[in-house]
Amino acid sequence: MDTMDIEEQDPLATGLTEVDGRKRDEDGDRPGCCGRFQRSISKWMLPEQSRNKYLERANCCPPPIFIILISIAELAVFIYYAVWKPQKQWVTLDEGIWNSPLTYKPDMRDEAWRFISYMFVHAGVEHILGNLVMQLVLGIPLELVHKGFEVGMVYLAGVLAGSLASSIFDPLNALVGASGGVYALMGGYFMNAVVNFREMIPLLGVFRILVILIIVGTDVGFALYRRFLSDDAGMKVSFVAHIGGGIAGMTIGYVFFSSYDHKLLKDPRFWLCIVGYLVFLVFAVLFNIFLSPAP
């Protein structure tokens, strides 16, 4: 009876023993580091009703390869333009990234790959470090829970939404950086933290929401400063990708990350978000072809 009472009080107990492949013994044997790590991840990333299912099948196969590979690629491109291309300093790169075939430039928007490839190019050390830290700290736990396909789709949806939004609302300025993808991950996680506030441990819920708001406020503040107030010479970079990526995350990202234990294709919210995203995509393409003031 005592054992049953303990299990009823702790809904994670059964999941943990199944993950470890053994039950707790009478001496109170605890799960190993892997079990405790997975339990912590489940508390941060999932509402209570989904945690047991995650703990039953939790493993690192496949590992969080998408976020790691994207981060390595972004760092490699930055090092290429900072080291192999002539630069006076690393803090703010100029000529190399301005002439890069990866940078989104409004007068070259007919080269459609630039709407995605701009995520690999960053304007300086501060820019790339901020994006890498945020996407690794948040993206790896998300990918451990939701796997690479879901996280990759949300990230790339944010990147594309960011460049398209910039081409509409800030059409005369260039765009570099992975902020659209990073903000999509944060937007999806933020919406889940808000909607599932009570199920995701209220005290942790307050903390995670405050942390996201502080990070977003600080990062957007720096982006606005660089865009409107900085006297640094060189190109002015659009900040609208932050907003476009965040909105993509709060819609598509929210649906992907909230459908952990459900059939995504049977979720009407999924189709609503997909249709809305496609409408925005078509409008943005038509705007860039017929209405854009950019040359």
From TrEMBL:
Q: Which domain of life is it from?
A: Eukaryota
Comp. bias regions, Acidic residues? 1-10
Report the function annotation for this chain: Involved in regulated intramembrane proteolysis and the subsequent release of functional polypeptides from their membrane anchors. Known substrate: EFNB3.
Q: What is the protein name stated in its UniProt record?
A: Rhomboid-related protein 2
Where is this chain's protein located in or outside the cell? Membrane
Q: Which segments constitute the Peptidase S54 rhomboid domain?
A: 110-258
Region annotation (Disordered) ranges: 1-30
State which Enzyme Commission number(s) the record gives.
Answer: 3.4.21.105
Q: Which species does this protein come from?
A: Albula goreensis
Per its UniProt record, what Pfam families does this chain match? Rhomboid
Q: Which residues form the active site?
A: 179, 242
Q: Which reaction does it catalyse?
A: Cleaves type-1 transmembrane domains using a catalytic dyad composed of serine and histidine that are contributed by different transmembrane domains
Tell me the GO BP annotations in alphabetical order. proteolysis
Q: What family does the entry list?
A: Belongs to the peptidase S54 family.
Q: Where is the composition biased (Basic and acidic residues)?
A: 19-30
**UniProt keyword Transmembrane helix present:** yes
Q: Please name the taxonomic classification of the source.
A: Eukaryota, Metazoa, Chordata, Craniata, Vertebrata
Which keywords does this Swiss-Prot/TrEMBL entry list?
Hydrolase, Membrane, Protease, Serine protease, Transmembrane, Transmembrane helix
Give the first-level EC class, as a single word: hydrolase
